[in-house]
Amino acid sequence: MKHTHVETHAVKEAAHTSQASHPTPKGESGDWARAPERSNMLALRFIVFMALFFGRHVTRLLLPPIALYFLLFAPAQRRHIKRYLFRAIGPRAGWFDGFRLLHAFASTVLDRVYFLRGRMDLFEVKIEGNEPVDAELASGRGAFLLGAHVGSFEALGACKQQTHQRDMRLAMLMYPDNAQRITGILNAIAVPELRPHVIALGRPHSMLDLRDWLDGGGMGGMLADRTLPGSEEQPAQQRGNNIVLPFLGQPAVFNDGPFRLASLLRRKVFFMAGLYGGGGRYDVRFDPLADFRERATSPEEREARIRAAVEAYVARLEALCRAYPYNWFNFHDFWLEDAA
Question: Which of 37, 208, 222, 318 has an alpha carbon 20 to 30 Å from 152's alpha carbon atom?
Fold first, then answer.
């Protein structure tokens, strides 16, 4: 595939950006990238076993006691959930709201198994805003889909089966530590045509792989609502710049790394969320966030456009948290209040 010198320079700059050193905010321990993710993997393995042997109806009977157990015996996560709910729905939030949030999380973990196995007959999925994404796919340029730890990213599989874009090619963009933990179990669950393709970022060839994937008409998916702690190979480093923005009435740290990638590779960026509505109902939504296809005329303009895109992402995420408060699955010190 032929590329211009300018494109190659942009890819090299993106690789440098992904490895640039930035200080970790005070209180940011990076624990979400270790213990919580590890516990999520254990829960996923258990639910996969139950789902495959007993089916969705029977396995869902286990979700209330699982949610109640974690509500009672996970004090740190309970504390973080309480803080979030107070901001999302107000001081009336109580124990039952925490239970509903944990039950919704357990439900999406269970349903992940069936989404990856193509069992769309079990769900009622409503898709909104997919026309601009379909148009970008038809153009063959590829784009970024930025989600969050809200609802189910795997619900994107519904778009392949319920719209005409059955040939949508999606790569999950992850850093090596997360990719190694998750790829194996997802590949074991998924049927071949729904098996996720993973591009591990932070490696010498990562940006070239990502550029080629996008140039081939593929989509790059990332969850962009967490700051990015250094990996074992880069223990004191952070990818991208951290930006403090108001979120649900309190300053929070967001990372602009995904938007820098989109800017350097000159792609469109869409927000994507698969919101859980209870039972077998999901609401998959797409929203345009930014268009970086036109090159910025100056570094100042580029930085302004990146920040505007991050602000648009945070605003959209906040709106969804208020409209769907039980779909927020960040069970860590998101606002860095424990250190204070």
Answer: 208
